[in-house]
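I hope you will forgive my troubling you with a question about protein structure. You will find the record immediately after this paragraph.
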Amino acid sequence: MSNARWQRWMVFVNLALTVAWIAWQWPRSPGWALGGPVLALLGFRMLMGLQFVLMARANRADPSPAPSGGQMLRAWWAESGWATRVFGWWQPFRRGAIADWLPERSGGAQGPAPRGVVLVHGFLCNRGFWTPWLPLLRERGHAFVAVDLEPPFGSIDDYAATIDAAVRRVTEATGRAPVVIGHSMGGIAARAWLRACDAGRAEACAHRVITLGSPHGGTWAGRFSNAVNGRQMALEGEWVQALRRAEPPGRAARFTCFYSSCDNIVFPARTATLPGADNRFVPGVAHVQMAFHPAVMQACLELLAD
């Protein structure tokens, strides 16, 4: 089952349960009828708050700057809102609303085309994740393909062919190697794709890879996953270590890695960095929030102009 389908199912189930609860309780007590959904929303936020507590404990020995209490509270609140948009609307219902854009260049076009982009989503996500990015890229003239990584709970290694096909499409449309932007698992899926590229081609097929909160060293939370790709992201697990060993010296220099000590999914914070990469610390920003943080988006757009 695709991520969009099961997330739509979850939205409809939650709506049905909410309507049933209100219809059942309203004759008895309008306060209880309306209070039930409010308590459910608070429960969701409290569950997310537990992620931040675990993150803070795991980050105690991390060399990254520790966030203040206020930064953590603001990141928790922002993450709750972004997660609701992403998982409650964009991914279930807007996945195909904005098509990939690969404009044909006119014969009289002067100079190189703007750098194209391949967008690679993370775990439990689909191309709808990138909804705010797509009109922005088109407005600036950047051809783009936003991939769907299927099957959603399969091996990260199996996503290489999907990424490769997208890179080839953007390269053909622009005549230039694209920038690959990956959020969360999407960043290490891009590394797995580079590993799978034909010998001698890997260093030419991507101009740069930008990762946003990607578990390059795995993540503490990966130990609890039952999915194949989730287990592959276990902290310093066998899969991430094998990926690291397979990479030639100097490859990390092609990467820009954004990371945060308020990332409630990828922690300890250092696991979202690569030795030798352009590692950029973003203070006070949570996991999903990072992909839509104005400063991060602006920095990515500037890297497209390189």
User: Anything to note?
Assistant: The chain has one domain: 1-105+113-306. DSSP finds eleven helices and six strands in the chain. The mean pLDDT is 92.
